Amino acid sequence: xxxxxxRQIEEGRPxxxxxxxxxxxxxxxxxxxxPPYAALLLLLLLPGMLPRWGKLPAWLTGLGxxxxxxxxxxxxxxxxxxxxxxxxxxxxxxxxxxxxxxxxSIVRHPGVxxxxxxxxxxxxxxxxxxxxNLGWLDMTLPFFYYLVMAPVLLIAMTGEMAYRGRFKSxxxxxxxxxxxxxAAGVVLSAYLLWDPVGSTILQGVQGRYFIPLAIAFGVxxxxxxxxxxMYRWATAVVV
Length: 239
Fold this sequence. Notes:
mainly alpha; two-stranded antiparallel ribbon; 10 helices
């Protein structure tokens, strides 16, 4: 889906009707299975992304195509959380995990969740998880691998920016808004489903949850001076 978005932004033309239906269907399936990624549906509202259907303006069609899957996802998700009767304990953690009570706790004390986010160790763990942290987070790769992959990611970003043509700053800002909403959804869902009620530490967030958003971040990067040579060199280095 993100590859299709990237291509349409590069070509500077709206999606076809068939491709629009395909994108809405694919992203709807993804968002129902993983609700935080419903934020990526907002990319359909990018200016010039959707075709005009009949006499309706494109933005009105976009609101309908985006709104229905998001409402369905939120309704499905909230119903499943509030109807969950099983309360379980996590190994080595005191407290009870209860998504319904956790949601009420956030509404009453939102500062607790913000406090849980401010941990450097959580940030480092998520970065490592995006690169590679397998299994039940018990299979890490050699430290040298992480040192190598960090500059490789930066070079890949440089190559992407060197390949891209003109990109409106408004579209870029809108994409970063969608990514931020997705990241907030990942944190919120993990906190609801894995952490004890009122916990001040986030222990359910894993780096791999942010991989789809990292791909979207690559699509949202601003363009540099277009250079085929820089793009080819960056590609060769990454390979």
